[in-house]
């Protein structure tokens, strides 16, 4: 079982020493590097990458996808968001719809919200009792081990924002006509449930963080959040020692 994480004690701001302009400029270089690494992963044919993005409303999941993967070949990436299950999905186990969306070798798949919603939102709403959540934690761990054994690299990011920053972003959605569509009256309800979400997220980090640790990403400053996620992905892919296959002429 992983070490307990107290989100209240973890900063939501960039560490000292990071310059905003320099960090944003470096992201442009990392975008191109990630593009090449995905191409290499496809050619190598042994690995795939699953990126899991979790976070409270307005934590910047959509923006992270746009900023980090904007140079990746569209044929090499797929983004999936898991919302309330359909009637057909509810008729299966909770991981059934998830397994159908995992990446094949050579691909990057991004889960913008994921199977962890079924041990987060459902607990806040009182749909999933603690006993069922405990069983799901075990099933999630086994599921992720199965993916790993098939060459899937899994990176789990929690985008960590402060309550004040979330309120500012909600207000921005109301003030900016281009973002009105993002505003949902339920956002305020979610904000009121902040302590419950924090509690259940910490439970997730503890119960599902041994084999594949969670990255708690300070996300009040979007430029640092994007840098952190991009750098972590690049470091992971570079560690795989992938190679372009050599052409062997037929005799």
Structure in words:
The chain has helices spanning 20-44, 61-68, 87-90, 96-99, 121-124, 130-149, 163-175, 186-192, 194-207, 222-238; strands at 48-55, 77-80, 108-112, 152-160, 214-218. The chain has a single domain (7-164, 198-238), classed as Rossmann fold. The chain contains ten helices and five strands; from the N terminus they run H-E-H-E-H-H-E-H-H-E-H-H-H-E-H. The chain is an alpha/beta fold and 251 residues long. The mean pLDDT is 93. The chain is 46% helix and 12% strand. The radius of gyration is 19 Å and the shape is globular.
Count the beta strands: 5
CATH superfamily: P-loop containing nucleotide triphosphate hydrolases
Known CATH architecture: 3-Layer(aba) Sandwich
What's the end-to-end separation, in Å?
56 Å
* Share of helical residues: 40-55%
Overall mean pLDDT stands at 93
Counting DSSP H or I runs of 4 or more residues, the number of helices is: 10
How would you sum up the global shape? globular
- The radius of gyration over CA amounts to 19 Å
Query: How big a fraction of the residues is strand?
Result: 5-15%
Strand order of the main beta sheet, please?
A: 2-3-1-4-5
CATH class: Alpha Beta
Structural class: alpha/beta
CATH T-level fold name = Rossmann fold
SSE topology string: HEHEHHEHHEHHHEH
């Amino acid at each position: 079982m992983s070490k307990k994480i107290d989100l209240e004690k973890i900063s939501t701001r960039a560490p000292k020493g990071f310059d905003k302009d320099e960090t944003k400029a470096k992201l442009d270089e990392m975008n191109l590097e990630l593009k090449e690494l995905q191409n290499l992963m496809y050619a190598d044919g042994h690995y795939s990458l699953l990126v899991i993005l979790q976070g409270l409303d307005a934590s910047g999941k959509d923006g992270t996808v746009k900023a980090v993967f904007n140079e990746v070949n569209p044929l090499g990436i797929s983004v999936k968001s898991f919302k309330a299950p359909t009637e057909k999905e509810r008729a299966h186990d909770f991981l059934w719809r998830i397994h159908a969306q995992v990446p094949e070798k050579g691909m990057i798949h991004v889960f913008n919200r994921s199977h962890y919603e079924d041990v987060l939102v459902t607990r806040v709403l009182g749909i999933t009792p603690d006993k069922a959540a405990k069983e799901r934690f075990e099933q999630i761990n086994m599921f992720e081990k199965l993916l790993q054994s098939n060459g899937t690299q899994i990176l789990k990011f929690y985008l960590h924002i402060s309550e004040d920053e979330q309120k500012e972003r909600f207000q921005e959605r109301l003030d900016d006509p281009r973002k009105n569509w993002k505003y949902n009256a339920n956002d305020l309800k979610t904000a009121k449930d902040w302590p419950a979400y924090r509690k259940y997220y910490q439970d997730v980090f503890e119960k599902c963080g041994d084999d594949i640790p969670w990255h708690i990403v300070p996300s009040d400053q979007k430029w640092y959040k994007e840098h952190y996620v991009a750098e972590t992905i690049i470091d992971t892919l570079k560690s795989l020692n992938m190679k372009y296959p050599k052409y062997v002429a037929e005799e």
